[in-house]
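STRUCTURE:
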């Protein structure tokens, strides 16, 4: 009986998180075009529904009913597997993200944490491991399409992943030194009490502001977003690794990109900006309302990072490929390593 209740609760929780993520992806497709339009002094989508708010629905229906074409020379199995291999790692990373307080409630004799699907003591390694698998979907999609443009996009993606995934991992080490844990729930709980306890500021210790800058730049590169969208450079490679994709397979790559954007924003919120904690204790409200205020502050911070993705796309031009690689290896990598050394020394001297 307990197993059945636990399974039902877990499946319901997973379903709720997946629905929230997919609805957010649909909303982001509209918000991005609206924000870019306003920044470029135009209106953005205006035709479908009042002020264009039904545009994501129209896009979804268009992709769903579009003909699914497989090129004659493609490896059909790998061509079909690649979009799934990109999408699944982007979605299962949310399993260890704490969306609210670390509460445990009793439901039919089963202990249940409503705001985190699972709290494992290697949560951040879990996310890094699955994020690296997603790149294989891009590489396989480029190779299996039997197209020179797609292959170039896949090869660029492989090199970009190696360059910037290393910097993402190294930028997190400073936070791990301060929190002495790999659990995202423990890291979030350690930042309660006010914004001065957030690891971005970390008063009384070594602030991780530099590490945050390295993390956010590397994360933009990891998600193939402007100005680091070299694997899908429209002006050079048509559409890069998914040039030959259409219909729902194209939609899977599209969902994976936006899913990774949301996941990166959630991780940045948890590691550097206190997760669900308010900047001041009094803004958290009474303890009985911490679940509501906590989810509000978490959502507010995540959408702030998502706006940053849009802002960068509207502002910065695409880098050349040699500039991309040079910046990753010669600039970000030494900064990330230096941050680890300084944080370790400061923590050792002033524990």
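SEQUENCE:
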């Amino acid at each position: 009986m307990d197993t059945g209740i636990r399974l039902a609760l877990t499946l319901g929780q997973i379903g709720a998180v997946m629905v929230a993520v997919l609805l957010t992806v649909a909303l982001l497709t509209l918000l991005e075009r609206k924000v870019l339009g306003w920044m470029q002094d135009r209106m953005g989508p205006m035709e479908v529904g009042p002020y264009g708010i039904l545009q994501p629905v129209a896009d979804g229906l268009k992709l769903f009913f579009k003909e699914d074409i497989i090129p004659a020379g493609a490896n059909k199995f790998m061509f079909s597997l690649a979009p799934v291999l990109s999408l699944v790692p982007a979605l299962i990373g949310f399993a260890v993200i704490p969306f609210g307080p670390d509460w445990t409630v009793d439901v039919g004799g089963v202990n249940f944490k409503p705001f985190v699907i699972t709290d494992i003591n290697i949560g951040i390694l879990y996310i890094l491991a699955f994020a690296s698998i997603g790149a294989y979907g891009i590489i396989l999609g480029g190779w299996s399409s039997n197209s020179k443009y797609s292959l170039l996009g896949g090869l660029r993606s492989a090199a970009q992943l190696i360059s910037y995934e290393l910097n993402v991992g190294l930028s997190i080490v400073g936070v791990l030194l301060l929190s002495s844990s790999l659990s995202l729930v423990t890291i979030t709980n350690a930042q309660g009490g006010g914004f001065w306890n957030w690891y971005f500021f970390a008063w009384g210790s070594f602030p991780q502001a530099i590490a945050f800058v390295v993390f956010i730049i590397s994360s933009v590169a990891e998600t193939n977003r402007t100005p680091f969208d070299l694997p899908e450079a429209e002006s050079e490679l048509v559409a890069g690794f998914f040039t030959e994709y259409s219909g729902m397979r194209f939609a899977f790559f599209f969902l994976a990109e936006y899913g990774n954007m949301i996941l990166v924003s959630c991780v940045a919120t948890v590691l550097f900006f206190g997760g669900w904690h308010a900047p001041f204790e009094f803004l958290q409200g009474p303890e009985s309302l911490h679940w509501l205020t906590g989810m509000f502050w978490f959502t507010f911070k995540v959408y702030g990072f998502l706006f940053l993705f849009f802002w960068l796309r509207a502002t910065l031009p695409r880098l050349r490929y040699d500039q991309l690689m040079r910046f990753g290896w010669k600039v970000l990598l030494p900064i990330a390593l230096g941050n680890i050394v300084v944080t370790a020394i400061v923590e050792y001297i002033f524990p």
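REMARK: Residues 2-39 form the longest helix (38 residues).
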